[in-house]
Amino acid sequence: MGSFAYTNLLRLGLPFFVLRLAVKGLKEPAYRQRWQERLGWTGYPALPHNNIIWIHAVSVGEVQAAMPLIQGILTGFSGTDIVLTTTTPTGSEYAKKLFPNSIYHTYLPFDIPGLVNRFLGRTHPSLAIFMETEIWPNIFQICARHEIQIIMANARLSPSSFKGYIKVKRFMAQTLDKCQVLAQTVSDRERFLKLGVKPDNIYVMGNLKFDSRLPVQQIQKGKELRKRIAPNRPVWIAASTHAGEEESVLTAHARLRKHVPDCLLILVPRHPERFQAASDLSARMGFSVHAHSQDDLLGSETAVYIGDCMGQMFTFYAASDIAFVGGSLVPTGGHNLLEPASLGLPVIAGPHLFNFQEISSLLSQENGLVIIQDPEALAQTLYTLFQDPKHSRVMGNKAQNVVIQNKGAVNKVLQAIKPYVDGR
Length: 424
Description:
Elements: H1 3-27, H2 35-38, E1 52-56, H3 60-76, E2 81-86, H4 89-98, E3 104-107, H5 113-123, E4 127-131, H6 137-145, E5 149-155, H7 159-165, H8 169-175, E6 180-183, H9 186-194, E7 202-204, H10 216-229, E8 235-241, H11 246-257, E9 264-269, H12 275-284, E10 288-291, E11 302-306, H13 313-318, E12 322-325, H14 338-342, E13 347-349, H15 357-365, E14 369-371, H16 375-387, H17 389-405, H18 409-422
Parallel strand pairs: 1-2, 1-4, 2-3, 4-5, 5-6, 6-7, 8-9, 8-12, 9-11, 10-11, 12-13, 13-14
């Protein structure tokens, strides 16, 4: 597929993209809002021609990965403004909570030349940083024509994504021709090279997620939450769960409570539109349910606590003894294993971790992560850890050490972008 065909397909598909947003908006109203931003109109007046760095992070996970980089830019490059774009409303809300006044935020425009040019005319970036696997052919090529350097930071390319991109290798090579790729791992570097990225344009920098700063206020809130809801009860969390996954989690919880009858599950679905569905499912499976949005007066019979708010995952982790990270018992690819590991929690996940292969391998090798295959194994692992607190603490410490030992990527990325900031 060439650039001409790709662009015309997008133009023809634009009404369907808008219709899709409208349909999503039926369940999540935020998708019905701020459509003009997706058409290239920013959510703020046009910026002056000064030191602007544009960072794109599609959703919550990518915003989390970008957080230490954004903090490093704001601290290390005075006089520089940041425009942060996201694609999802959840990513947008999370970005606003993290950086309420220090950056500009808007949605990413559709990858259609007229809309991209409108966006660039309102933001005037000198440098564009795209997080992880975000490849947008028209945006990349238009930025190259405007001499805006594109950097893919924390770049990763899973084997499954690679299989799709390699089918259009020539088009990908053209798209990435002027792009500098700062890869997470040697394996990611090899896959980008096979897509046609020039060897001189790709470097292995490590994973920015290891450098994320712990949100001290959230952690304190989590400790206070634990004292209120379960001061003397064992607590585990199932974080970032998906449809089809909560059934397995709740099945494991039912098995666990036969042997640890007072244990409490904090269940935090990945997407806010599914909070109520998870609560309803828990009730149908016979559990007494309480939501975080309610008061904190839990009865001893409460078995499932629904974490029905966004941007507070560390609060819920800090209130827990053991963490199961979702998106891994269903073929989603997993979610951020480093968050619970950074707090010294023993980590459990399912087998579908293709988005976190390097991290899961490191944690497994150091015995900070247990990978389970089904609800029975999840229940057994939880029971073992609850029955042996010393083993649980050792496992959590090993997970935390993996995080500590792999820090440093943010400084490497800041050094890589420094010439493009200082040279303007």
